[in-house]
Amino acid sequence: MHLSILYRGSLISCNYGCEYCPFAKKQQSARELSQDERELNKFINHIETNQQHSFSILFTPWGEALIHPWYQQGLIRLTNLPNIEKVAIQTNLSCKLNWVENCDKDKLALWATFHPEWVSRDRYLTQCLELHRRNISFSAGVVGFPRHKEEIAALRQELPSDVYLWINAVKKELPNMSRADLDFFAEIDPLFPINTHHYPSRDRSCQAGKSVIAVDGEGNIRRCHFIRQPIGNIYDDNWEDALGDRLCTNETCHCHIGYVHLDYLELDKVYGDRILERIPVGINNNYS
Ligand code: SF4
Ligand code: SF4
Known about the structure:
This protein is of the alpha/beta class. The protein has helices at 30-49, 69-79, 121-133, 149-158, 179-188, 256-259, 268-271, and strands spanning 2-8, 54-59, 84-91, 108-114, 137-143, 165-168, 199-200, 212-216, 220-222, 230-233, 252-253. The protein has one domain: Alpha-Beta Barrel (TIM Barrel), CATH 3.20.20. The strands form two sheets. The chain has a nine-stranded mixed β-sheet with strand order 6-5-4-3-2-1-8-9-10. The site of one iron/sulfur cluster has 14 residues, from α6. One iron/sulfur cluster binds next to loops.
């Protein structure tokens, strides 16, 4: 069996201070951070012992994980496991990047978000170019606030043409945006319109809970990050029994890491095998 896992442990802290974010500049105690480290290592050990299955893993931390050595070491360990197909992580790309040399680069991918209110475009771009030079697959992206249009346009100009730049729609701001703003974002990211909807999902078939699951630091399995009810625990014997067909119980799904798994949207045709790192088919950025 191949299974995709969205992992989110106990980390809830970040070195950046984006004004719209609940984790902005939040700090955790040494005890809390060591709990996160223990949880991550337990999870990786479990993946390692489940050699009868293959896995693709996307880390979706609440905060910034890659500034912590246990995440860098964790990605090195995971990408070098034979039963891992892919490891991707959402990051603000503020960390040093030399550790990627110890990963199996064919299995590593980054989902790297630019936060123009918190880091200069130059600094973010330098990091992107370093990833590019080190042959690491990544998508770059920005939250689509019209006030950042100039920075976004400049970034698109400066990034290599084979790096996909996504724009996340700020759903509640969309009704206030001009046609020109919407057209601008769609010109930067042709897939931006896909991200502007709340997709009807109740009673619809979704891969969440079947071929993709969310796992927290205690091992609780949920179908996705948007339905709180656990369906099992990955540390139980026969944890695989929790997987199966289920219809969505939420009215709508509007976040990329959720709706890409809604069967009727057929977004696997758009993203192919790089759905976790958000790189569409046709973008040639694995360089090697
Ligand atoms: S970088 Fe991400 S996690 Fe950190 S404050 Fe900004 S939005 Fe929040
Ligand atoms: S449609 Fe969205 S909310 Fe519903 S199960 Fe799938 S990922 Fe979860």
